[in-house]
């Protein structure tokens, strides 16, 4: 077991290195703006630009630049400084992380609390109006673009522009430490919108799994043994049906922690997704590299956790 | 001398000219606004916190680097330059750090300025400001780690400036602690005096800044030392980054404990100014309109302009003389190397529509040449009527005339039939992207095949419009604002053939007309406001006639603020509320 | 989603329907029978065909509706402050801030959505199937290499990768030496890059299990070459899952194109794209609701139709499932 964990973690580290290389290649080789000019503040003097390029190390070969980046990261935990604002990338990430975590965790809570009962109930009462309603809703949930849903939600419920002013609108987010109530209310609409797609996907998936599981032998055995239907469904069947969902949820959480750029854009939440997007638009390489690595980290860690959990449950997996 | 557009583009905009501009100061010649007139702030209430909402971050707080209108707005209340303007009188040079008017010698090659006593730096430097602090501030502009954008332009005539690289400049002399003498190689001392309104002349303590300036790039911006009524909170070393300034998030200004009101004409009513950075301009606009104590630093959207104009006129101020917007056509490569083709495009462009998508007649006048209302020489070059060229007579465009010009260019049907695909690069964000699309459609209607790119400001300038080898044919979202009212600062850099650079090129049309270049060289040395106005007005006419760029708007920048804010607009800086004069009702 | 007679489980109904009359039918015939009986899927198919027709015949549709072209800027449709008019007789869906007809642009937006969706999915499937096939069939180091590569791509925050590439390639002369020019081609490239891995994984899994099946083992023992085995035995059995997966992937690629356009890195204006229109509308949707609602509804409708069809296909193809 320990050997398996070690192998997975080592592979995770290699993955991170490869991701950083891929990021480097993509964003350095395909630039959109000249960071030296950003720095120069539009000074028209070509000599100054050359000087700044030298200062930033942009005139060295790509391999040299990548090596510098790697050594700084590994030896000093230094992700560099933003070309655009001069702030350290690490501080920018730390600054934006709470917003992303707030958004992600809230959305996860909602989608678990909603998707599981919906999935189970619609599987058990297959064919009834509950099932139909759920499946239709789920279909709409996976078909509607999240940013559009966000705009519609704002149009209806935002307290500054909505037809039924109920909840704070875009741009209302404040950190938890500043004003807990406002933090909470400003996140309600984003949570609902962000979780909608996931709820839909998971409810459908769970429904499908549940239907399969409910027709399997061990469930019939449980029924035959005289257990109440409720116990059969919630204790026995659900356990079998939910495992793939847990895997998926782990991966999705990892993905979301890297930043949900679309939701953050619509609701004006200063999270990591938005930071990454702005960095790409400004060609702010250090920030791009930092945020991508950060996001990849979460995804990789989530993968490792899930794999290890699987290996714990199913020893055959460890041999792979 | 900078690209126009309040927040998408930088603009150092200072109006100098002590003598002649008072007529064009605050009550400008336009019909658009019986909106709030410029308040000079007298009698305001003390206290309170002003909150400024801005979607764009501060580019740099270093007075040696700063060149953007928002940054200038911040610096205007945190540092003191030799001379400045009272916010509502963009014509009169007012001594700030200096005492008395600038003394220009008879031959125009010496400028003497006396420094006021009793002005102190903020913590942690805490000592009195002396002339050597101003000398160092100017010298560091030539340091490549600072790389000031206009140092060589305006201070380049100082003796020794051509060899300057951050070390002492011989031509800046300090006979005593409170006197500065500039010795020049050419008789341009009055221009130099005017240029001291730019933040480069704000004092910087050398003992504190030298170690920071030795780093590449200079770290002074994160340790800004104040000399004005407000400062940015810093830690005990003076570092503001992380204390009063969180990049992309917030900036705070608090009172400078070492500022003495007796040495300053600024009332400094509010106790604190807090910037909220990075949100959406639309959301900020709504908040500023309906909230309290809020000022919107971004240009309000056309919808908001309409709403404020119709419902709350005293919450919006249209600041006149905020620059000229124009579309630059690349004269170096086909098809716009042909003047007839350029004139055809100019004739076809519906400038009225370009203005309308920005908010309509209230936000500016249709432009017909490049000097704009409030700049010397504007009237001499034709004023609002224009210089008389036929292709700019009709604000809504004249398709028949455009067709005639195309025929003159060799396209018998009046439409383009060549092979070039026109690369058009516009600015992202409404309404700029809308203007780019109007321009793009105009080209298409003339038969051109176009490839339109809508990109962010840094990319537009840094990768496309400012880089000749990118071979961009048209940049419809560019513009220019003066550094001060002298017309040279509006026309020289953007249209002089000597200023075509491979990168960061300000002469976007790459206009290189020998007659114009010669006229500009002569115009630089003309003395006397009237004579200069006439000389540069003539140059304006010449540039307009080439159709290298199509002027389409004289900006009257709208500024929005909450109902309880008594905003005192900086007429010299696109109407941003001046924090040292603004108060809460 | 079939509606059943009470008393029968879904798979029992299916059995009845499939084998009623005692006639033996081929798998494809069974597939068609099941699909035809699924009313919802048929409705979705009709909608999709209609959408494709509308997209292909966009100029005609717009002309028939009496609307101006998608790039015609109507000066009279905006007031003196530049505020556009809402839905009215001349402009059914209102106009955008430039005075362009929203109905027209919504119709033309279907072109981009369907083009990127169909072509993008097609190419992604091609790439994914190839990689999955190679990895699953040859196994060994080929499999390890390809699977690890897929792992790396999957660890990458794919939307961000897509944004980065789209942003970079949409400027100037594009990338890959100009082979990928800015515009639709870049978007298709990005869409393919982001989505091919899921198909690759599925195909690999399928091939791994298929290659151990009796008919493959038999073919190999008879001396058939690898190519024969792949083309005659494996590929045909991949068709069903690939179709199912493609139909599930298509709506996602359409949403991806819209998301890229929403973020400003998809197709450039003035080309009409639903995502771009929604982004453009996000500043003014509180007063100009039509500009946000109609493109969004069109997008929702399209994606929904493809999802429903995908569900129907999966139900019809999968003999086991009774969803």
Overview of this structure, please?
The complex is a heterotrimer of chains A (320), B (585) and C (323). Chain A is mostly helical and 320 residues long. Chain A has 13 helices and no strands. Chain A starts with a helix and ends in a 7-residue tail after the last helix. Chain B folds into 2 domains: 57-270, Periplasmic binding protein-like II (D-Maltodextrin-Binding Protein, domain 2); 324-555, Dipeptide-binding Protein, domain 3. Chain B has 15 helices and 23 strands. Chain B has helices spanning 69-78, 131-140, 151-154, 189-195, 206-213, 281-290, 302-311, 339-348, 351-356, 399-408, 432-445, 457-465, 488-495, 514-525, 529-546; strands spanning 2-3, 49-54, 83-84, 94-95, 98-104, 110-115, 172-176, 179-183, 230-231, 245-246, 250-255, 272-277, 294-296, 316-319, 324-329, 364-365, 421-427, 449-455, 474-481, 549-555, 557-560, 565-566, 583-584. In chain B, strand 17, helix 11 (432-445) and strand 18 (449-455) form a beta-alpha-beta unit. Chain C has a domain at 102-317: MetI-like (MetI-like fold, Orthogonal Bundle). The radius of gyration of chain C is 24 Å and the shape is flat. Chain C starts with 9 loop residues before the first helix and ends in a 6-residue tail after the last helix. Chains A and C meet through helix 1, helix 6, helix 7, helix 8 and helix 11 of A and helix 6, helix 7, helix 10, helix 11 and helix 12 of C.
Distance between the termini of chain A: 12 Å
Major sheet of chain A: size, sense and barrel closure?
none
Secondary-structure-based class of chain C equals mainly alpha
Reading the helices and strands of chain A in chain order gives: HHHHHHHHHHHHH
Beta-strand content of chain A: under 5%
Binned, the helix content of chain C reads: 55-70%
Note the quaternary state here.
heterotrimer
Number of strands of chain C: 0
Radius of gyration of chain A: 24 Å
Fill in the CATH topology of the domain at 102-317 in chain C.
MetI-like fold
Number of strands of chain A: 0
Structural class based on helices, strands and sheet pairing of chain A:
mainly alpha
Q: Name the average pLDDT of chain A.
A: 82
CATH architectural grouping of the domain at 102-317 in chain C: Orthogonal Bundle
Label the overall shape of chain C: flat
Strand content of chain C: under 5%
Report the major sheet of chain C.
none
Output the helix-strand order of chain C. HHHHHHHHHHHH
Alpha carbon gap, first and last residue of chain C: 6 Å
* CATH homologous superfamily grouping of the domain at 102-317 in chain C: MetI-like
